[in-house]
């Protein structure tokens, strides 16, 4: 054949290749346009706001904007000894403006995050400031409270000068940037967040294991029973799945309370005495029990859908080739169910790690998770940037697992019901 | 599951042990739901089975908590129910329309960047609700939609669409595209083809996706906790408040109604699933 193969033309005289490409492109655009509305909607209402969380968690312009003169004057200060009169005057002017605008409370809250004790001395300053005389502000401010003469507090103010801070992330790990700019750990009695992260991982891990141990036998039973029985038993899995989360949590609250049925049963079989009924709610036990039952269907369903595809003749073949039922199970059946195990475990782990409602209701103080801390800062302390920082750390963890899940199982393989 | 006659004793024992374990797990799954039923008919205020109830004394049972649920003023269950249904209905309609259209695009083999787009569309289902709640709250506060029905409906559309996308793409995966080509070759325009051919065939998937979206919205509490004002209270919010403050039997009456509702939804979903499998020719 010659190298110049004749181009194939369509009836319009356009080369076929070009025409095909054109049609392909048209189809691509058509398909994309169908997805576009939802994609756009999600980007605006969901993806962007998550990006905004990132911005919020590092954004520190609030203090910067409240004390513009101070930070300008502080640029020349080396931070070793008390700042000069210039800084004190700038701070006085900034603060006076804030008092007039009635926004000085916000500054007090923000600086108090940085160093405890700011709230009271700023309040005192606000009261005494009315009688201040012109000039020599350093002396006058230092006379208000002895902490104003402490260089540590001025350093704390200076640390809030940059527009961007990663202090919230450090705080979420129970660390902070000390006076010399080194990252160090907070004192042992104040390390609350690390305990919460570890507890979240621990509970998510053990709930996953418990779910797996319980789900495997029943998924196997459901997959091997004849249809008419398994359909009936499937209801036992699907009914809790469709029932409101709050209803299921409420039923556990009734069962686990001190005068509840579970405790009654323990007393009746003589496991515990009538007087010392154990506390099973408002602690870790409550969280474990309730979360395991609530997440169990999410483990059963992927396992079931995989086991359903395994032909029973494989086990029979294994046995007929001389394996005992255990060997046949371990060497033949179990390896075939691994995709289902992976899918179920990752799903349950992802769901468990971000659980909020159930731990908040039955967890008490020792059974709450990182989500509860995020909600606490969103609703009670209103430290939204800290909540955002913790949320994003949690999100990163989940996305890593999601990525693995996608690699292993593929998101389009998620099946419901 | 009957064992063959030649089974050795130890395997027989093992088999019965396995059945015992399965029974226990099924019991663990389903039993907690049934505690709520009898206690919601309790004549007394305590959440334990009274002696009268154990003797099945008819005087120990009453409908007073159901009356309290309907006529009581302490918790506005009426308003909450109305809000819940309004929000869930509109959220479902929104999710179904956006999700079905997107699923049609995603199922096309011409779709570019399918993987990443699918992952984005499904993400609200994977991201922990608390994070979704925070993010959506920031958006709604900025858009001035916090503490409005519209805001909550939009938030629930975000949370509900992944379910519709998943169920509809699953239905479309077994879809025979030659029927739509046949329709267009016979002169039908795309919209007409969709309404007359595609939609009736994928309807079971659409409806079951819609059911998921409805249940998600109806049961959603984390995001609503951030968004709702007093006027937008929903059933889950009222339950949440009730469970946090004081566990009263009225909540159990509400919970019983919710269990009945979820049973109805389960039956519908199950019937739809079977119908859809029959249509796709995978019936067993």
This entry's quaternary arrangement is: heterodimer
Determine the mean pLDDT of chain A. Answer: 85
**SSE series of chain B:** HHHHHHHHHHHH
- Distance between the first and last residues' Cα of chain A: 58 Å
Number of helices of chain A: 19
Radius of gyration of chain A, whole Å: 32 Å
The strand order across the widest sheet of chain A is: 1-2
Largest sheet of chain B: none
CATH-level-4 superfamily name of the largest domain in chain A: MetI-like
Overall SS class of chain A: mainly alpha
SS strand fraction of chain B: under 5%
End-to-end span of chain B in angstroms? Answer: 19 Å
**Beta-strand content bin of chain A:** under 5%
| Second CATH tier, the architecture of the largest domain in chain A | Orthogonal Bundle
For this structure, what is the CATH class of the largest domain in chain A? Mainly Alpha
CATH superfamily of chain B: MetI-like
Looking at the structure, the CATH topology of the largest domain in chain A is: MetI-like fold
| Record field, number of beta strands of chain B | 0
């Amino acid at each position: 054949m010659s190298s110049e193969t004749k181009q194939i033309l369509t009836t319009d005289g356009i080369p076929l290749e070009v025409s095909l490409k054109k049609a392909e492109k048209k189809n691509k655009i058509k398909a994309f346009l169908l997805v576009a509305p939802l994609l756009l909607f999600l980007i605006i209402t969901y993806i962007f706001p998550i990006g905004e969380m990132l911005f919020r968690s590092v954004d520190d312009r609030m203090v910067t904007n409240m004390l513009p003169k101070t930070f300008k004057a502080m640029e020349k200060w080396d931070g070793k000894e008390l700042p000069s009169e210039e800084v004190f005057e700038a701070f006085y002017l900034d603060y006076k403006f804030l008092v007039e605008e009635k926004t000085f409370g916000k500054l007090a809250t923000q600086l108090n995050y940085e160093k405890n004790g700011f709230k009271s001395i700023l309040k005192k300053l606000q009261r005494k400031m009315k009688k201040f005389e012109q000039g020599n502000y350093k002396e006058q401010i230092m006379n208000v409270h002895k902490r104003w003469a402490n260089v540590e507090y001025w350093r704390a103010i200076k640390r809030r000068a940059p527009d961007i801070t990663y202090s919230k992330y450090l705080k979420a790990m129970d660390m902070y940037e000390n006076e010399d700019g080194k990252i160090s750990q907070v004192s042992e009695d104040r390390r609350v967040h690390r305990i919460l992260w570890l507890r979240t991982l621990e509970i998510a891990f053990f709930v996953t294991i418990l779910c797996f141990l319980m789900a495997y036998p029943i998924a196997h039973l459901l997959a091997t029973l004849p249809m008419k029985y398994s359909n009936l038993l499937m209801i036992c899995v699907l009914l809790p799945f469709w029932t409101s989360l709050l209803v299921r949590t409420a039923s556990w609250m009734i069962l686990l309370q001190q005068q509840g049925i579970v405790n009654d049963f323990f007393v009746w079989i003589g496991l515990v005495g009538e007087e010392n009924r154990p506390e099973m709610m408002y602690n870790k036990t409550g969280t474990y029990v309730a979360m395991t039952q609530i997440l169990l269907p999410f483990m059963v369903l992927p396992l079931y859908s995989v086991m359903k595809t395994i032909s029973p003749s494989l086990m029979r073949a294994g046995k007929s080739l001389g394996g005992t039922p255990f060997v046949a199970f371990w060497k033949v059946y179990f390896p075939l169910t691994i995709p289902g195990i992976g899918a179920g475990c990752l799903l349950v782990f992802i769901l468990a790690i971000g659980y909020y409602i159930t731990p908040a209701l039955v967890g008490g103080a020792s059974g709450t998770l990182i989500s509860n801390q995020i909600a606490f800062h969103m609703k009670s302390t209103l430290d939204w940037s800290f909540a955002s920082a913790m949320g994003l750390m949690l999100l990163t963890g989940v996305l890593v697992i999601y990525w693995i899940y996608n690699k292993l199982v593929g998101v389009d393989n998620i099946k419901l019901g | 599951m009957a064992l063959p006659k030649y089974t050795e004793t130890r395997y027989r024992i093992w088999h019965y042990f396995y059945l015992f374990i399965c029974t226990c797990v099924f019991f663990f799954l389903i039993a907690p739901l049934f505690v709520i039923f009898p206690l919601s008919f309790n004549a007394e205020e305590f959440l334990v089975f009274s002696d009268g109830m154990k003797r099945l004394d008819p005087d120990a049972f009453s409908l007073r908590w159901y009356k309290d649920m309907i006529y009581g003023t302490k918790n506005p269950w009426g308003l909450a129910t109305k809000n819940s249904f309004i929000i869930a209905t509109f959220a479902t309609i929104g999710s179904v329309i956006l999700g079905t259209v997107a699923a049609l695009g995603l199922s096309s083999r011409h779709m570019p960047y399918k993987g990443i787009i699918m992952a984005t569309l499904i993400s609200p289902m994977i991201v922990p609700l608390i994070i979704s709640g925070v993010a959506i709250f920031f958006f709604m506060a900025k858009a001035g939609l916090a503490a409005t029905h519209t805001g909550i409906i939009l938030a629930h559309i975000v949370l509900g669409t992944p379910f519709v996308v998943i169920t509809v793409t699953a239905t479309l995966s077994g879809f025979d595209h030659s029927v739509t080509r046949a329709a267009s070759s016979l002169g039908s325009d795309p919209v007409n083809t969709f309404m007359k051919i595609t939609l009736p065939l994928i309807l079971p998937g659409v409806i079951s996706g819609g059911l998921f979206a409805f249940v998600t919205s109806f049961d959603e509490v984390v995001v609503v906790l951030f968004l709702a004002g007093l006027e937008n209270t929903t059933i889950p919010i009222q339950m949440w408040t009730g469970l946090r403050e004081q566990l009263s039997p009225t909540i159990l009456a509400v919970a019983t109604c919710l269990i009945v509702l979820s049973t109805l939804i389960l039956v519908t979903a199950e019937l739809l699933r079977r119908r859809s499998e029959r249509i796709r020719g995978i019936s067993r």
